[in-house]
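Holo prediction. Input below; ligand is NDP.
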Amino acid sequence: MKAGKDIALANKETLIAGGPVIAPMFEQYGVSMLPVDSEHSAIFQCLQGIPKGGVKKIILTGSGGTFRDVPLEEMRTMDPEVLRKRSTTHPNWDMGAKITVDSSTMMNKGLEVIEAHWLYGVDYDDIEISIHPQSIVHSAVECQDTAVIMQMGWPDMRLPILYALSHPARVPADLPNPRDGRDFGDWWKGEGKDGKLTFSKPDLEKYPCIGLAYKAGRRGGTMPAILSAANEQAVELLLTKVIDFLDISVVLEKAMDMAEAENKVVLEPTLEDIVEADRWGREAATLVSKTLKTAA
Ligand SMILES: NC(=O)C1=CN([C@@H]2O[C@H](COP(=O)(O)OP(=O)(O)OC[C@H]3O[C@@H](n4cnc5c(N)ncnc54)[C@H](OP(=O)(O)O)[C@@H]3O)[C@@H](O)[C@H]2O)C=CC1
Ligand SMILES: CC(=O)[C@@H](O)[C@H](O)COP(=O)(O)O
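Structure of the complex:
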């Protein structure tokens, strides 16, 4: 950014943790952050042509992850090994293990709320999450005049990557569905199979990570860095069989409480403060996970 280069940002954790330091640099160095994350690319695409002041709300769509149709009560009675294994699978997207587990807890959507706040300067009260099982609408913008603009396409990262590179141009491309090779034109001819789009509110009891992310975002300063790092560590602890899937949000809530109790939140952080928050967040998640094990 200091070299005056625009950035195509694929790694969401960077901006979630470093937002307070990075966001002021957009203006300071006259550079743009071009989103690659599919939801933020969708928002960026929807924003083209909406004048300043025209946006009322951002609506982030999320699949609900692999456990979307499994009631919380049932998850509590399931074999932890089955939950662990299934949490690394995704209904629509083919992604790395960490982000896939984040989709299963919906922490991915919570982190994306913080990412959207920094990318678009939108207040947390004006960012909503909608569960959209088909992952065809990649996010939406509600305008002041009530118009809602959505971006659609297959669950395929090639289009967000292409748009970050071609913006503002729309270049010809052939991007068939990565899972079955069908052209997106087929979606319209799906005779009800593909052509159904549904939306619903997330259950915050089932997905406590959403509430934790809003809380961290609103607290500001280094709290999102602490949460993101603790989450990375918690996912690692899940994958290495130290904790169970349903422990993730418990670990994160306790790590955030610990950050408050130990005055670890720096409200106007430097880059060094953020790096330290990242280190501390990982350590806190590990410590908390040990108390869980001891309690068990
Ligand atoms: N996959 C997707 O569709 C999407 C991903 N993202 C974001 O992209 C990022 C990566 O996700 P994803 O591709 O799924 O993850 P993967 O786990 O598939 O890939 C991560 C890659 O990063 C490399 N890596 C990890 N740590 C370092 C490091 N310290 N220095 C250099 N390279 C490193 C890994 O290398 P190695 O294998 O050698 O460890 C690996 O190649 C995340 O921030 C995620 O949120 C956002 C939207 C969609
Ligand atoms: C591909 C991408 O950008 C991910 O963020 C994806 O959208 C995750 O799926 P969920 O909607 O299940 O979190």
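The pocket of NDP (ligand 1) is lined by residues 10-13, 37-38, 93, 95-96, 98-99, 157 (CB under 6 Å). That is the main takeaway for now.
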